[in-house]
Amino acid sequence: MPQDDPGPDFAELLRRSGFHHDLDFTGVVPVEDYRHGTTCVAIRFVDGVLLAGDRRATSGNLISHRSIEKVFPADHHSGVAVAGAAGPAVEMVKLFQLQLEHYEKVEGTSLSLEGQANQLGQMIRNNLPAAMQGLAVVPIFAGFDLSRREGRLFEYDVTGGRYEEARHASTGSGSLHAGTVVKIGYCDDMSAAEVTDLAIRALFEAAEEDSATGGPDLIRGIYPVVALITADGYHRLDDNELAERTAALIESRRGPQPD
Fold it and tell me: What is the pTM of this model?
């Protein structure tokens, strides 16, 4: 009958067809059904900007992956650190990389850092319907601005709102703890070595307080991803160097040993 036509509402059609018993139309994806990645920080220093992220992904209260990567190069002089639903986050980064590469091939020059930040904000905005169902992606974007000759970093909200930060930024479930450590330890004109140690300490402290943030795994040799972006480009630090710096941090945390 015409009055029984559900129109464009597919969910209502399934209900009327008797398939509603096994379906959930609440619009929210159960958190245990997808991988969620946290925590990331970005810190400006004298020669550019640092991006760092822990390696843990969780599905609800389970550790679903111990060595996921959340920090990626965007182009030669910029990078993205992602937090949120891992699947959409990685897909967004790959598409962002492709768009920047396509622009460079067509125009013969790289898109400005400001333009890249705007482009990523639009992509986050386009993900808003999925974010409202629990699949939010909230990245940090950072890079070395060749025109200004300085590092710059940008935070976003789930609607794609873009906010440039002067010193540091953090995202993810452990962002409160990591951001506090960075805020306390930050000072102007820090060197690359100093911000690297600060980022490692921030993620370490976040892992102490937030179960979704992974600390250094000395047994498996898993350490945070740390990348420096300077006038020379995007450079990811070697795990051997991170192991040495992590060992020094742990030793300092132990304090003096009793005689």
Answer: 0.84
